[in-house]
């Protein structure tokens, strides 16, 4: 638990109390961990793997709000405001989690101003990202939206940027409100024009000029 950034400022006694109220779990790919609209019992910390945060309408159309990676927490919103779960969270890969029960989380928040600040910093970061996404959706065309998702997924490798983990086109489509076919067409176009270079096994090299789509 100490290696989780959220808890790094806690005392030994606080960590022990938290550990007593938490369980470690492993889930396969595609498992629903949190269901939109349901009451909440736990806060989760992703230790390994990836998970997507998504909402769906009554017709089953889905939008992916975020992809969560190791060290990040989720499920805190409904614990804080006592409302139903704001979104569903589903594993993308086989993933390890720490589930902390509501009471332990709340008593930790009450006893550690440092942890409250970290939770707030996490919420603020998420709001910043949401603002950026609203901007992307409102101002960019579909090429720009795909470029933004690809750049966000990528890491810097030397002078270039590279995507190392596979994300299906269907999932990219759900992140930007486009169809899978449209995402495939845009990706093909970006490849033909030399903006992206597929390297096999899901890895993709992003050329610097890809960022010209963001303006
Ligand atoms: P909760 O509402 O309890 O359950 C769903 C969780 O998804 C929510 O808490 C947050 O932890 C997470 N979540 C909701 N919206 C976003 C978002 N825009 N970005 C990242 N995570 C989110």
From TrEMBL:
Q: Which UniProt keywords apply?
A: DNA-binding, Transcription, Transcription regulation
Molecular function GO terms recorded:
DNA binding; DNA-binding transcription factor activity
**Cited PROSITE patterns:** CNMP_BINDING_2, CNMP_BINDING_3, HTH_CRP_2
- Source domain of life: Bacteria
User: What CDD domains does the database record attribute to this sequence?
Assistant: CAP_ED (cd00038), HTH_CRP (cd00092)
User: Could you tell me which PANTHER family the record lists for this protein?
Assistant: CRP FAMILY TRANSCRIPTIONAL REGULATORY PROTEIN (PTHR24567), HTH-TYPE TRANSCRIPTIONAL REGULATOR ARCR (PTHR24567:SF74)
> Which part of the chain is the Cyclic nucleotide-binding domain?
6-126
Q: What is this protein called?
A: Crp/Fnr family transcriptional regulator
Q: Does the keyword Transcription regulation apply?
A: yes
């Amino acid at each position: 638990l100490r290696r989780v950034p959220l808890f790094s400022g806690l005392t030994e006694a606080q960590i022990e109390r938290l550990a007593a109220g938490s369980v470690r779990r492993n889930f396969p790919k595609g498992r629903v961990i949190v269901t939109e609209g349901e009451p909440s019992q736990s806060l989760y910390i992703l230790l390994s793997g990836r998970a997507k945060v998504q909402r769906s309408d009554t017709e089953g159309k889905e939008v992916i709000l975020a992809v969560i990676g190791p060290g990040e927490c989720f499920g805190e919103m409904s614990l804080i405001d006592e409302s139903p779960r704001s979104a569903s969270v589903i594993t993308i890969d086989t993933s390890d989690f720490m589930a902390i029960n509501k009471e332990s989380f709340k008593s930790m928040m009450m006893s550690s101003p440092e942890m409250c600040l970290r939770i707030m910093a996490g919420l603020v970061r998420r709001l910043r990202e949401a603002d950026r996404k609203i901007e992307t959706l409102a101002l960019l065309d579909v090429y720009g939206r795909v470029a933004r998702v690809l750049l966000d997924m990528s890491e810097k490798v030397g002078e270039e940027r590279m995507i190392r983990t596979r994300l299906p086109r269907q999932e990219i489509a759900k992140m930007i409100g486009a169809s899978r076919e449209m995402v495939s067409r845009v990706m093909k176009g970006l490849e033909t024009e030399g903006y992206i270079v597929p390297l096999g096994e899901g890895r993709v090299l992003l050329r610097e000029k890809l960022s010209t789509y963001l303006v």
